[in-house]
């Protein structure tokens, strides 16, 4: 389980194909602290560490993950948000994040707001689990959504989040990983939506 509070970013330094799987080597400040079998959220996608050195760690994405997230477009040089799983004695600073991406969204607009940034994000499928002032995860970042519609929402980004995540490199038209609030998903399922 994760909280959507990004620890650091990493850079994709190698991509290799293995049948329908893709292996990524990620160079990051936390790579030396990782161990094989550990879960780490990469842009909000939970991946298992399968190898590491002091400078990089390796993860594998299967076809399902490549098809349903932005990982299929990663290449050498891609900057990735990283979060290790939550310690059972840690603070719960974000919201419950599983690392299971629900769908890919598209950045429609980015506006500078005199010290913050306003992102408008859209998606193809109608979603009943995005609620005004509710939690959402965008590229693994726990955020609050507003101006919610059937096929989109807005988020406001403070300078700290802008400076310490890969959001600063996004532009209109770019794709992002979306994970809707797990409680909202269960409520929607119970209500038959």
Protein traits:
single chain, 193 residues, mainly beta, Elongation Factor Tu (Ef-tu), domain 3, 2 domains, six-stranded antiparallel beta barrel, six-stranded antiparallel barrel, 3 helices, 11% helix
Cross-sheet strand order for the largest sheet: 1-2-5-4-3-6
Low-confidence stretches: none
Give the name of the CATH architecture of the largest domain: Beta Barrel
Q: Give the overall pLDDT as a whole number.
A: 93
Note the gap between the termini: 25 Å
SS class: mainly beta
Shape: globular
Tally of helical segments: 3
How many whole angstroms does the radius of gyration measure?
Answer: 16 Å
Written overview of the protein:
- This protein has 193 residues and is mainly beta.
- The protein folds into two domains: 77 residues, Elongation Factor Tu (Ef-tu), domain 3 (Beta Barrel), CATH 2.40.30; 88 residues, Elongation Factor Tu (Ef-tu), domain 3 (Beta Barrel).
- The chain has three helices and twelve strands.
- Strands 1-2-5-4-3-6 form a six-stranded antiparallel beta barrel. It has a six-stranded antiparallel beta barrel with strand order 7-8-11-10-9-12.
Write the layout of secondary structure elements.
Blueprint: E1 8-18, E2 21-27, E3 39-42, E4 45-52, E5 56-61, H1 63-68, E6 79-84, E7 103-112, E8 117-122, E9 135-138, E10 141-149, E11 152-157, H2 159-164, E12 175-180, H3 182-190
Antiparallel strand pairs: 1-2, 1-6, 2-5, 3-4, 3-6, 4-5, 7-8, 7-12, 8-11, 9-10, 9-12, 10-11
């Amino acid at each position: 389980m994760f909280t959507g509070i990004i620890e650091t970013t990493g850079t994709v330094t190698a991509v290799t194909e293995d049948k329908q799987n893709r292996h990524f080597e990620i160079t990051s400040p936390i790579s030396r602290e990782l161990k094989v079998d550990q879960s780490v959220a990469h842009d909000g996608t939970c991946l298992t560490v399968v190898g590491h050195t002091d400078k990089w760690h390796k993860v594998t994405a299967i076809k399902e993950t490549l098809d349903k997230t932005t990982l299929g477009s990663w290449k050498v040089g891609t900057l990735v948000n990283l979060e290790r799983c939550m310690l059972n004695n840690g603070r719960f600073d974000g919201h419950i994040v599983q690392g299971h991406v629900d769908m890919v969204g598209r950045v429609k607009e980015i506006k500078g707001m005199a010290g913050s940034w306003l992102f408008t994000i859209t998606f193809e499928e109608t979603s009943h689990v995005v609620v005004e002032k509710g939690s959402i995860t965008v590229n693994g970042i726990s955020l609050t959504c507003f101006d919610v519609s059937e096929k989109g929402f807005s988020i406001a980004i403070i300078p700290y989040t802008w400076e310490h995540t890969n959001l600063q490199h996004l532009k209109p038209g770019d794709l992002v990983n979306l994970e809707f609030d797990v409680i909202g998903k269960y409520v929607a399922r119970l209500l038959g939506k």
